[in-house]
Amino acid sequence: MENILLISDVVLKERTPIHGNIDPKLLYPTIKYVQDSCILPILGSALYFKLQELILSNDINDGAYSDYKTLLDVYIIDALIYYTLYELPVDLSYQFWNKGVVRKQGLDTDMPKMSDLLDIGNRNKNKAEFYANRLKAYLMQNANQMFPEYNNPGNGIDTVNPSYKNFTIPIYLGGDCDCPYPDGFDRNKPYGQ
Description:
The protein is 53% helix and 4% strand. By secondary structure, the protein is mainly α. Strand 1 and strand 2 (100-103) form a beta hairpin.
C-alpha cells in the first residue's frame, strides 16, 4: 500500500497553532511516523489499511462508508493531530542541511530552550492520549457492528493487532500465574529465584 496520510497538512494547520507558512514537506514525515507508531497499533492492520484504501479511492466520502468517515473525522484525526504536535517541536527545530544538523532561527524571534520544547510536547502528548483512549473505547464499543476489520486484523507475520486496552501499567499486580500461591511466590524457593 502507498504511503497514504490520514490527514493533510492543510487540516493540521487549520486545527492547530502550526503556522500556515511551514513547508508541508517538513510535516509529512512526522505525520507518517505518527500514523505508523501511534494510530496503526490502535486500529490494527486491516482497519488501518481499509481507511487508507478508502482515502486513496476517495470512497471515504461515499455514504456507504459513513461509519469509516465518522471514525476518521471524529476520533482518529484528533489523536493524530496531537500525537503529531507532540513529535513536531524537535522535528521542526532541528533540520538537516549540507553543513550538518542546525537549529534555524529567524529575525526577531526568541528560540525556546529544549526543556520548553519538551514541555510543549508533553502537553500535546496528554491531549493525544486522551483522544487515543476515546478512539479505543469507540472501537471496542462499535467494532462488531461497524468495523469487522478491527476484530480480524489478519494473520501475517507483519500483522499489527489492535490494542484493546485503554490503559496499561508496567507494574505486575499478581494474578494470571501458574504459581502455586495466589501472590505468585513459591515459598520453597529463596526470594527472587
